[in-house]
């Protein structure tokens, strides 16, 4: 007989300061061992739904819930605070938000301490989870020195060390390089089969998951279920053909740029030039130095080896909320001083931010935060832009809007650098690819040269873009 893990009956949820609900009339059941994908537009309430399942909401945000939620056959509100989290583990969108301790080992130990695990069992459980996740070499490493992708893997390990019955995942592969992402899905498949885990994942890029999921619950932009059906593999998003000219003018040049911290070399000397109107994708395995390179160019580290042909660059980091300075999305967008209100309104409309313009930028979804930060930098009209993982948390509609905005800036002669693991987006926008591995620059290549070299891609944990025939088909 089915063993029901979660049941929602006509559930609605509203944050105390909002006039309208984030989720409306949600009803479904999830049985033990199911693999369920939750999809929908950015800001539709997908993460909120996960937080209702793990009981983070409503108590932690004073949210208002209508309807009935049952967990493991009991009313969800009958559990004491934290009680259900012995059985339901969660990996959040932003792994930094769940870390409390400095090193990987201490973070795992902290998780076990909160479960009252006997000290005599801790060492073996930590060793075991690090072995099965391939992170043994990071046991004593400081978490804050790791790349975003490696932090995501550490966060997943902290969830698994609990031996949970249910694993809730909020876009778990968005910060992983393509090869590691594929390996993660294969590994999770085996783990689920072995331990009969119930896996529920919020995900935009379902094409990366193949046939992993059995079922898909689709959420609409107003927080309702539009479909709850058997999962069908998703096709790759296809972008329009880009046609623009790279100008014969240097935008910036880097000569012997390197980064050292506390005696450790994070980035070996790097040298390259970027032209006006050029889109350069920076790619490589997790931890290869991509974000370090961007920070070095923009001045977070010393940048004496970089020469700019124009004003200083604009930079949107992986954690976009670090840029926020104001209390509303509209004020954040206007902070850059875009001269025309009409231009600002058009930009907000293009980024689908108009409907949340009065909300606090810290309170919106992960994908919306990223669009606010990108929009604020676009409004500032910097001639050189650096975007670190701009596609993370974005649905197909948002990706197409972002593609068109970047294309428009390139047409104006601006230079755009994009750090991304999304090879489909990279294939759509890139003129050139800078490849990094182990803190060293392999080279700067024409994009088409990279897509046609399987060995070069494999050496940098990249997979050929599924849409790489787009250009050829467009000219056929």
UniProtKB/TrEMBL annotation:
Domain of life according to the entry: Bacteria
MF-aspect GO terms: ATP binding; ATP hydrolysis activity; ATPase-coupled transmembrane transporter activity
GO cellular component term of the entry, any: ATP-binding cassette (ABC) transporter complex
PROSITE patterns noted in UniProt: ABC_TRANSPORTER_1 (PS00211), ABC_TRANSPORTER_2 (PS50893)
Keywords, sorted A to Z: ATP-binding, Cell membrane, Membrane, Nucleotide-binding, Translocase, Transport
Chief place where the protein resides: membrane
Topology with respect to the bilayer: Peripheral membrane protein
Localization per record: Cell membrane
InterPro entries: AAA+_ATPase (IPR003593), ABC_transporter-like_ATP-bd (IPR003439), ABC_transporter-like_CS (IPR017871), ABC_transpr_CbiO/EcfA_su (IPR015856), ECF_ABC_transporter_ATP-bd (IPR050095), P-loop_NTPase (IPR027417)
Domain ABC transporter intervals: 6-247, 241-463
The keyword Flavoprotein is annotated on this UniProt entry: no
Gene3D superfamilies attached to this UniProt entry: P-loop containing nucleotide triphosphate hydrolases (3.40.50.300)
Matching SMART domains: AAA
Pfam families: ABC_tran
Family: Belongs to the ABC transporter superfamily.
Protein name per Swiss-Prot or TrEMBL: ABC transporter
Organism: Planococcus halotolerans
């Amino acid at each position: 007989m089915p063993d029901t893990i979660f049941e929602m009956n006509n559930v609605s949820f509203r944050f105390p300061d909002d006039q309208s609900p984030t989720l409306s009339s949600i009803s479904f059941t999830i049985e033990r061992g199911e693999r369920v994908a939750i999809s929908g537009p950015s800001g539709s309430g997908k993460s909120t739904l996960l937080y209702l399942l793990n009981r983070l909401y409503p108590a932690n945000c004073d949210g208002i819930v209508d309807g009935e939620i049952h967990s493991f056959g009991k009313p969800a509100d009958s559990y004491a605070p934290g009680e259900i989290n012995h059985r339901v583990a969660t990996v959040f969108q932003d792994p930094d938000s769940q870390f409390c301790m400095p090193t990987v080992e201490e973070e795992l130990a902290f998780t076990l301490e909160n479960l009252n695990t006997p000290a005599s069992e801790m060492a073996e459980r930590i060793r075991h989870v690090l072995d099965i996740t391939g992170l043994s070499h990071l046991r004593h490493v400081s978490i804050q020195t790791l790349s975003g992708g490696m932090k995501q893997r550490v966060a997943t390990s902290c969830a698994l060390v609990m031996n949970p019955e249910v694993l809730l995942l909020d876009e778990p592969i968005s910060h992983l390089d393509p090869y590691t992402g594929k390996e993660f899905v294969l590994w999770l498949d085996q783990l689920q089969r072995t331990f009969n885990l119930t896996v529920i994942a919020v995900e935009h890029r379902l094409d990366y998951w193949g046939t992993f999921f059995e079922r898909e619950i689709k959420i609409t932009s107003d927080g309702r279920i539009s479909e709850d059906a058997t999962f069908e593999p998703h096709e790759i998003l296809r972008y329009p053909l880009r046609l623009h000219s790279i100008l014969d003018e240097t935008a910036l040049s880097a000569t012997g740029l390197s980064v050292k911290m506390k005696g450790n070399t994070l980035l070996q000397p790097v040298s390259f030039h970027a032209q006006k109107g050029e889109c350069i994708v920076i790619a490589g395995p997790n931890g290869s130095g991509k974000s370090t390179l961007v920070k070095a160019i923009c001045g977070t580290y010393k940048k004496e080896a970089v020469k700019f042909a124009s004003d200083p660059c604009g930079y949107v980091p992986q954690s976009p909320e670090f840029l926020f300075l104001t209390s509303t999305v509209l004020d954040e967008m206007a902070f850059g001083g875009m001269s025309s209100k009409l231009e600002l309104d058009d930009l907000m409309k293009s980024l689908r931010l108009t409907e949340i313009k009065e909300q606090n930028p810290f309170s919106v979804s992960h994908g919306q935060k990223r669009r606010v930060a990108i929009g604020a930098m676009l409004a500032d009209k910097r001639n050189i832009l650096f975007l670190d993982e701009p596609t993370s948390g974005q649905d197909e509609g948002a990706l197409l809007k972002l593609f068109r905005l970047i294309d428009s800036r390139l047409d104006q002669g601006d230079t755009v650098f994009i750090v991304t693991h999304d090879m489909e987006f990279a294939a759509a926008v890139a003129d050139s690819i800078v490849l990094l591995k182990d803190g060293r620059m392999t080279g700067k290549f024409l994009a088409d040269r990279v897509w046609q070299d399987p060995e070069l891609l494999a050496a940098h944990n990249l997979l050929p873009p599924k849409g790489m025939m787009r250009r050829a088909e467009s000219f056929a």
